[in-house]
Each structure stands twice: as structure tokens, then as C-alpha cells.
Amino acid sequence: MKKYDVIVVGAGHNGLANAAFLAKAGLDVLCVEKNDYIGGAAVSRELYKDWKYSNCSYVCSLLRPEIYRNLELHKHGLQVTPYGGSLQFMENGDYFGSYHDPEAAHREMARHSLHDADAYSRYSTDTMRQCRLIRDFLLRTAPDPTSFKPRDIKELILLGNKFLELGEDRLYETIRFWTMSVAEYLDEYFETDVIKTALSGSGIIGTALGIHSPGTAYVLLHHYMGDVDGNVGTWGFARGGMGAVSNSLAGAFQSYGGEIRSEAGVDQIIVKNNRTKGVALESGEEIYAPVVVSAMDVKRTFLNCMDKNDLPGNFYKRVKNFKIRGSSGKLNIALDGMPTFPALSENSEFIGKADMHFIDSMERMERAYDDWKDGTWSKDPYIDCTIPSATDPTMVPPGKHFMSCFVQYCPAQIEGRAWTNEEREAFGKSVIDQISNYSPDFKDLILHVEIRTPQDIEDQIGITEGNIFHGELTMDQLLFNRPVPGFAQYRAPVKGLYMCGSSTHPGGGVMAAPGANAAREILLDLKLKNTVPENFGDD
Amino acid sequence: MTAQHIFTGRLKTPFHPRITELDSLNTWHNWAGYSSAEALYCEDMEYFAIRNSTGVFDITPMTKYRITGPDALNYLDRLVTRDMKKIKPGRVAYAVWCDDQGQVMDDGTIFHLREGEYRLCSQERHFAWLKAASIGFDVTLKEETADVAALAVQGPTSYSILKNMGVRGLEELKPFGLIHNEFLGSELMISRTGFTGDLGYELWISPDKALELWDALFEAGKEYGIRAIGTHALGLARKEAAYLAPFEDFLPAETTVRTGRTRSPLELGLDWLVDFSKENFNGRKALLKEKENGSQWNLVKLDIEGNKTADHSYIYAHEKNNKSEIGFITSAAWSPICKQNIALGTVRSPHGKPGDTLWVEIYYQREMHWNRVMAEASIVDKPFWFPARRGKTPPDPF
């Protein structure tokens, strides 16, 4: 039977990116995927006739341009188109919009508060300073602070210098920033509830924390550090849906001779004498390779697909305690036409183009989290609602639309037990009702709805509790602590076994950085020439 | 008798009323005496209209000449470097024409409208040159810039939009082909041409039907992401397609004062446009000699490492030993679609072979301070952006 150099488990974007860089280095790489389609959580699926759904991840900004360029993803069909602005509908019938153009953005903010409009520039400079600090480390392996290896020491010095460069006052600010809540951070700049609400959303997306929970200021950063062609903070749509990201990575991988097998779920990672031998598929078939890379989240990898006795006890315990809590759900909706929003004028450029939210106060944001803590979904949720079909002509028939609603909060279990169908429907209804409050014709336009709880996402995609980041992005789970202290350099405690999913540094968000970084480490261990590009840098 | 005072302001194209309605940025520039919008609402979004849906750009100010008469073909064949006999009616040719020294006067497109009837479009005004070249040929030359209103309709949904507008015959229309339709009693010419390197068309109509055409086009494009765009978006798209822009990547020979600032077609990578099998054409002797002795300059398409745009940069053969530069960048951009740092440049022979590596000295400013980087640049052969949809016939709906 054929033996491969490397088996990558999971054909999500990180698995495929990892596989592509390894294949590019000349290795014989097989990527196995449990589903009958590739892409993991970066997929476009036809769930309603002639409609393509980005039914998991739905926007693209963090995907590293260095990877895009190096793997020539445009030749494999990837195109990312930015979209314009965002909207916060208000209960009093007004709205707060944010614009791409800084002058328009200032004017709209000043309509709500001149103070906040002027404060925005300071807020944006301070946030950008934090972005710069972290962006340099996205395509680098986090240094191990306890190691005396020259490479770790060099990287630690680099990290240290980055911090020292800030100067004393800003160093204090940075340490505060990394530990404070997004609400406290925004309070330092703004006075208007709806403006703070609009900015706070990015602090909680994908995180089982509330806007007042410590650590959420950093999550905000995670959503700001992306860019579309140098426009930092801009988000875009992958043309053809998020599946275009995975498909282009798969195209690159195959162009380097890589092989993908779908419907090949891994049951066990085979270990003998503390060394990886390959994988045993659910079908019973065994495939062998001296290197196995898991793109699955750490819990699924180590708790579900390995024998506990093959792992150090402390490592096992840490993985078990890794925070990867289900906090968000998703509604994917086929629409017969563009809904109208009475708050907007008929020719408003926001219609269809903006990212919409239907919540207007910090209190409502926090109350939404209270429901989650009570073990149920938010009755008045935070929804991140986009209509990619208004930008992307390839997703649905002309004149029709696809709406993606990311919904927070939504627990993995209801009061500690599995969801019932009725509860799933009720969760969907609370989302549709909230949108309907701002769009009277919305309900009538609905042709089809897919409702996904964290449990559904776990069942279909495999991500534990459907956590979009493969583990929360809090300080205790970042950099050299991600996923587990001492194992942040993509190497598992078993020889020949590596991790390349978003549970590793620098985390989720369709960056493909974990996959690329892991490939660099593997090539280093195999003493092969590195194929992973360096950060563009911004000095 | 007092002569009528000429109009000294900027002219407005027949589409001007519609463009001003859509314009919210008030950034206009001069294009051959006409007001032309740089951007209408957002440069970035306008660029993405070209690559993602459809961008509409007013090309009316482009200089246009009608060439007719029994000798029209022989005349053009003598004028330009490529073989015009191969350009059948219903076809369009990209072409350059040279002075007697074989230096490029301009580039442009020649539309073979009907048997023996041509339209030549160019950036510069050339009536004097065209007339002088016509001595001995039975041809009629007519300047028709203001007589034809024209729109570039470019992007992946352009085919669907034109079909939706009722244009017939698009299914068979290949790149560099043209067809005639009727529009409200006037002739509408549709050519599959453009300056974006993507799927796209150009529409040509009598100015009195311009607004009706615009309205019909935008109505048909409503559900296909149609957007009016300005020059800046187009300028970025043309760099990705590695198309040359006069006054950026070369200077029309008649406009240069200093010796050595002109370029031959061979030096611009346009040797495929020069057909030495033709008995005679303007500049043939000089170009033949250049072909034998070698060119002085080579145009290069550069894929530059990093993401700092290489505007106005010098080019070097080596990273360290850079006492003397070998050339310079003529246009540069960060390509959003390829995620590539791209540039066109001109380098001294023998440098400039595809596959070779050169070095580019880039200065870039960050918060007032300047930085310098020597970036490695590989010379590439093909345009940076050349999607399959550009050449597909019939095109896909998007």
C-alpha cells in the first residue's frame, strides 16, 4: 500500500494551506476530509436550488496576503471584494452607519455626537498601534519563553523589542489593552451608546464572553488587524462564497502534486512507541505516513482521535480545559428579493452593501450574554447580518439574495442538555423576529432558512462546540500559550504529530496563518527548504 | 467681421449629465479637452466593479479617425507595423505606428467596421501625421472624435448586462471582434475590446442617443452590479493587464525634446506587432536594423517582493553592487486581484529577459519618515492578470 510523506487531517482552509506549503516543498502529501466536500468551515454550499451559501464563515479579511500571493490563489479562482460600511439600526427608528470614506464617517458620527466623531481618530490610532504590534507575529511561530534555543531567544528578543519600542506610557496602555474589556476600552474614547455598541460587536464575536468581560478588547483587535489590500480593518467577500478560499487553496495544493480524499474521516491517529505512524479511517482503512498534521481543533484531535495513554497527563488535562465554548449560531437565508428597511432612504447606499446589526445599546449587548450564561440563546441577540449577493453576482439568480446572519449568543447545549428541534426553531425565530422589527417585508421574502446551532456546526464540520476560532482568543490562550503552554510551536507531544488548525497561534478568522506556520516548523524538522513566505512587514 | 471666440473651458461628453448625477467626489481632470472623472464615489469599489461585476467608463474623449476609400487597407498597412491584411471586416487590431526612425508615435486600436471602412482610435492627435502619410493613397480621413459617443463596459457580468439590454450576436463575438446592432433607430457598434484585461466590451453610438444608451445599459445592469467608474480604477486595472499607457510607459515620439527618450516597438515588448514580411511600412528600415543589431532598451513586467509600491524607482542588476542603475519603473501598483506588487519598467539591454532577477530601490514614507528597501524583482512573461473569462466565447454569465 502507498505510503505518504505527510497526512494532513481535515481539508479546511488551514489543513489545505499547510498541505500546499508541504507539497510545494516536494513532499508527497495526502489531505483527508471526513465530509464529502472540502473546505471545513470555509465553504459554499448549494442548500437551496441555484443558491450558494457561505453557510459557516462568511467574510474574509484576515487571510494573509503573503499566503494568497505565494500560493497564487488568484490563479486558482480566488477573488476577495471589499464591501461598504456597517449599520446599527436603533429602536427609535434612527440608525448609525459607518462609512469607508473617513469624511463621510466623521459626518455620520457627528450627527450622533461631535465629541465621538473627533475622538474616533485617537481611538483609531491607538487601536492601530496595537494592531501593528500583533500583525508582525501572525506569520511567525510564537517563541517559547522557557526555551534556550537560539531561535527562541532571537524571537523573544524581537517580541521584547516590539514592546519596548512603544515607550513606557504606551507599554502600560498595551498591558491594560490586552486584559481589559471592550466596554472599558470604548469608554475611554466615546460617550454615545449606539457608537460604542457598534464598535463593541467585534470584541465578542466568536467568544463566550460579554462586552464587560476582561480580555474582550483583544478580540476587537483580532477583527481589526485584517485588511483588504492595505485598507486595514476592511472586510470583504470571497467571490463565489467562502468556498472559493478553500477551493483555491486546494487548487494550489493539487498543482504541487497533492492529493485530497474526501469521505475519509479519521477515527484514530496511529501511535507506536511515542511515534506517529499514520491514521486509521472510520472505514477501518489505515494509511501510513511518518508525519501526521491535524487541522482539527485540539480537543477533537487529542480527546477524540487519540489514545489518552499516548499523551502526557498534564498535556491531556490542559487540552481538556482549553476554552472552546460554543457561543454563536448561524442563520443562512435565501431571499426572493432585497428587503426594505424603513429607517433607510430608498436610495441609501447601505442597502445590501452594509453589514447590519439590530441592537443599539451596551445594555442590550450585555443582556444578550446573560441569556447565554443562563444556558439558553439570546432572546434579543447580536446579529452580524450581511447580504453578500448584493456585491457578489455569482451566488444567486439576479434579483434574488442570500443573507448570512451570524448570531450571538447561542450555547452548545440548552441548560446542559442537547438542543431539541423546537428549540432550534425558536432560536431561528428570535433572529427573524429581531430583523423583522426593522424590515416589515423581510419575513415575506424568505424562501429557505438554514438554522445552525453550535451543536449542528460540531456535527457537520467537526469543530468542538462549533467555536469559530477553534478556541477562544483570550490572553491565557494566545501566543506561546496557544493551545497549551510548551506546545505552541505546532508540535504535539508525540513525535511526527503536528497541529495546524486555528487552536494554534495566531488563532481563527480564516487567516490560513496557523496552517502556514505549522508547515514552516515541519519543514524545519525534516531539514527541507522553507516554502512559507515571510511577513511583508510594516516598519 | 469678428471671429467667433473659441470655447476655452472643458468640454463635456454626451454622457456628462448622467455621470455628474452619480458623482459625489468632484474630482475631474482633463482628457483631450474633455472633463473626465477620476473617481465618482470610491476608487477601490470602482476598481472592484471591473473585477467583480461591471464598471462603465466614458471613453468618448478618445481621439477617433474614420478612414475610408479604395486604398484604406493599403494605407493603413503602410502606416502601422502589423499586417492589416489579416484584419478582416468585423475585427479590431491593436497597433502601433512609428516615425522613420522606427520610434513609436502612438499605440491605438483600428476597427475594421465594414469592408474598406476603418476607425482608428488613439490617445494623441495625429491628423497631420495621418494626412502626410496618405499622400499617394486614395483615402478619405475624417476626424470624428465628437461624432461618436463611446462607453467601455468592463467586467465579468458585462456579457449578461448587454444580453439583458437586448444586444444580439454577443454569443459568437470573440475578443477583438465587433458587431453592429440597431438602437432606437441608430447604429450601435459593439466591440469586445477594452483596457482592463478582463471580459469586456465597448459601445459606440451617435451622441444624440448617448443618454438613452446609458439609461438602457444601467437599467439592464441593475441586478448585475453595474457601476460607473473613473480613470483611477481603470488605471489600476490596465497595469494588472500590463497594458502600456502613453506618457507613462512610453512617450509619443513627436512629443519628446531630448534625444533617446523615445522607444521602438521592439523596446516596448511589441515585436509581435511588427511584421517584417510586409514590404514596406513606416520605420521598417530602422526597425530591421535594430532587430539585427539589438535594441537599447527592454520593457519589463516585474513581480516585486514585499508590498511597498515601486513608484518612480530605479532598477539595478544586483542587490549590492548598485553603482549604476540599469533602468527605472514607469508604472507600479499593488494589485488587489493578484495580491502582487507589480510594475512595468524600462531597462537597458541586455537586461530584461523573462525569468531573470533584478533589484528595485523603493522609497516609502511612514508617518513622515522615509524608509528605503532594495526589493528583489522577477521579470515575468505574461500579464499579471489574464483570467480565462477574458477569452471565453460565449462568455459565462458572470
Provide tags for this entry:
heterodimer, A: 539 residues, alpha/beta, FAD/NAD(P)-binding domain, 4-stranded antiparallel beta sheet, 21 strands, 34% helix, B: 398 residues, alpha+beta, Gyrase A, domain 2, Alpha-Beta Plaits, Elongation Factor Tu (Ef-tu), domain 3, 3 domains, 6-stranded mixed beta sheet, 6-stranded antiparallel beta barrel, globular
Word description of this protein:
The complex is a heterodimer of chains A (539) and B (398). Chain A is built from 17 helices and 21 strands. With 539 residues, chain A is an alpha/beta fold. Among the domains of chain A are: 189 residues, 3-Layer(bba) Sandwich (FAD/NAD(P)-binding domain); 121 residues, no CATH class. In chain A, strands 11-2-1-15-21 form a 5-stranded parallel sheet, covered by helices on one side. A 4-stranded antiparallel sheet of chain A has the order 18-19-16-20. Chain A has a 3-stranded mixed sheet with strand order 7-6-17. Chain A is globular and about 65 Å long. Chain B contains 8 helices and 19 strands. In chain B, a hairpin with a 5-residue loop joins strand 5 and strand 6. At the A-B interface, helix 2 of A face helix 2 of B.
